[in-house]
C-alpha cells in the first residue's frame, strides 16, 4: 500500500549536523586530509571529552583515561573480553537496545535477559532481585543503559545507588552505555554511574560519544572511560591497537562537537522536547495505544498490546500506515506487543506519522 514510508526506526536525527562539524569535513576535503588520525588530534579528542564531562556532569576524568574507539558496541566488546571472567554470562535488562542481545552471543557468552518492571504509569524500573540472582548464578557483567534506550528513562541517584549495592555485593562489573547523556529532555540531571562513588568507579567501564547528541554516528568515534587505576593498567597493553580503529574525521568532529557546538545541542534538545510533548498528546488520541514517559533520548516506547495487531506492531503500521518502526520483540522477549519509535524528525512529519497511525488503528475498530 505504501511504497515509501516515514522512517521512525533508525536512531539518528533528521536535523543535519552542527556547523563546526560540517566545517571539519569541508576542511578535510579541501585540504585532501584523509590520512590517519595524528597523535595531536587524538590527544585533542581525549581532552575535549574530559572537558565536556567536567562541564556537563562535574565528573573529573583524566584525559589519559579516555580511549577512542569507533562506537559504544566496541566499548562493550572490550568490557566483556578484557574485564570479565572468561565465559561468564552477561546480564541485559530488557527492553534493550537491539545489538546488546546479539553482540554477547557473538563473543560466545550467554545473555541473561532480565525483564524490567513496568508500573501502572508505564514507567520502567530495573528488577534488582532478578539482577542479583543472575550475578549469584555466575554472571560477570551488567549492561546498564542510561538514558535508557528504548524506554526513555533517566535513572535517578537512588536507582543507580541501588544497582551499585547489588553489583558491589556480588563482585560484578558494569558496562554503562551513556551515549544519550546529552539528550535529557526533562529537568533531571544525568548522573554518570561511575561518578557516584569509589564503588562504582571501581567496577564500571563507561561508554560515551558525540554521535547521538550531535548526530554524527557515521563518523565513528566513541569514547571508553576508565575510572580506576586497576582498569587503566589492565587495558594498557591493548590501548594503542584499539585506538588505531578511529578515523581522522571522527576524531576531529568530536572536538568540534564537544568544544564548539553546545548551543546547537541546546536548540536540538529544545526541539526534541517539543516533539516529545506532541507525541504524548497525539498518542492519547489513538485508542489502545500507550507510551512510556520519555525523560531522555529521542526514542519512544509504544505499548500496543491492547490493540492486538496482526503480525505485530511494526508490521501492521508499516503495512497499514506507511510508518516504519522497530518491533519490540527485537529488544528482547519483554518487548512483545511493543514498538520503538524514533521521533527526531521535523514536527510536520512527526504529526503526519502519528495521524497515519491513528487512522490505521481506527480503521480496525
TrEMBL record:
Which InterPro entries does this chain map to? Aminotransferase_I/II_large (IPR004839), Class-II_PLP-Dep_Aminotrans (IPR051798), PyrdxlP-dep_Trfase (IPR015424), PyrdxlP-dep_Trfase_major (IPR015421), PyrdxlP-dep_Trfase_small (IPR015422)
- Quote any Pfam family the record assigns: Aminotran_1_2
Aminotransferase class I/classII large domain: from which residue to which, for each copy?
Answer: 12-356
UniProt keyword Acyltransferase present: no
Question: What are the protein's UniProt keywords?
Answer: Aminotransferase, Lyase, Pyridoxal phosphate, Transferase
Quote the PANTHER family the UniProt record gives: CYSTATHIONINE BETA-LYASE-RELATED (PTHR43525:SF2), PROTEIN MALY (PTHR43525)
- Name assigned to this protein: cysteine-S-conjugate beta-lyase
This protein's species is Oceanitalea stevensii
Amino acid at each position: 500500500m505504501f511504497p515509501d514510508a516515514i522512517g521512525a526506526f533508525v536512531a539518528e536525527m533528521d536535523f543535519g549536523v552542527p556547523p563546526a562539524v560540517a566545517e571539519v569535513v569541508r576542511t578535510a576535503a579541501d585540504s585532501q586530509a584523509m590520512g590517519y588520525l595524528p597523535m595531536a588530534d587524538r590527544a585533542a579528542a581525549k581532552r575535549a571529552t574530559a572537558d565536556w564531562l567536567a562541564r556537563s556532569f562535574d565528573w573529573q576524568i583524566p584525559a589519559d583515561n579516555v580511549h577512542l574507539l569507533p562506537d559504544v558496541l566496541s566499548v562493550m566488546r572490550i568490557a566483556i573480553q578484557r574485564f570479565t571472567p572468561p565465559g561468564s554470562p552477561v546480564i541485559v535488562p530488557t527492553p534493550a537496545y537491539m545489538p546488546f542481545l546479539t553482540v554477547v552471543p557473538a563473543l560466545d557468552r550467554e545473555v541473561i535477559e532480565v525483564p524490567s518492571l513496568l508500573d501502572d504509569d508505564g514507567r520502567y524500573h530495573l528488577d534488582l532481585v532478578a539482577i542479583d540472582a543472575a550475578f549469584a548464578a555466575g554472571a560477570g557483567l551488567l549492561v546498564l543503559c542510561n538514558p535508557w534506550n528504548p524506554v526513555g528513562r533517566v535513572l535517578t541517584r537512588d536507582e543507580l545507588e541501588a544497582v551499585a549495592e547489588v553489583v558491589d555485593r556480588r563482585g560484578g562489573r558494569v558496562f554503562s552505555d551513556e551515549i544519550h547523556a546529552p539528550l535529557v529532555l526533562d529537568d533531571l540531571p544525568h548522573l554518570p554511574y561511575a561518578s557516584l562513588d569509589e564503588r562504582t568507579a571501581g567496577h564500571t567501564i563507561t561508554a560515551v560519544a558525540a554521535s547521538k547528541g550531535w548526530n554524527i554516528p557515521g563518523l565513528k568515534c566513541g569514547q571508553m572511560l576508565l575510572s580506576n587505576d586497576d582498569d587503566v593498567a589492565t587495558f594498557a597493553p591493548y590501548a594503542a591497537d584499539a585506538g588505531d580503529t578511529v578515523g581522522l574525521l571522527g576524531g576531529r568532529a568530536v572536538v568540534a562537537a564537544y568544544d564548539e557546538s553546545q548551543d546547537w545541542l541546546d536548540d536540538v534538545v529544545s526541539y526534541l522536547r517539543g516533539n516529545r510533548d506532541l507525541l504524548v498528546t497525539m498518542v492519547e488520541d489513538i485508542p489502545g495505544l500507550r507510551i512510556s514517559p520519555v525523560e531522555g533520548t529521542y526514542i519512544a516506547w509504544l505499548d500496543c498490546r491492547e490493540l492486538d495487531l496482526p503480525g505485530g506492531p511494526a508490521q501492521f503500521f508499516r503495512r497499514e500506515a506507511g510508518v516504519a518502526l522497530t518491533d519490540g520483540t527485537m529488544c528482547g522477549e519483554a518487548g512483545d506487543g511493543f514498538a520503538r519509535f524514533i521521533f527526531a524528525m521535523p514536527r510536520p512529519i512527526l504529526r503526519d506519522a502519528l495521524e497515519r497511525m491513528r487512522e490505521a488503528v481506527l480503521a480496525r475498530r
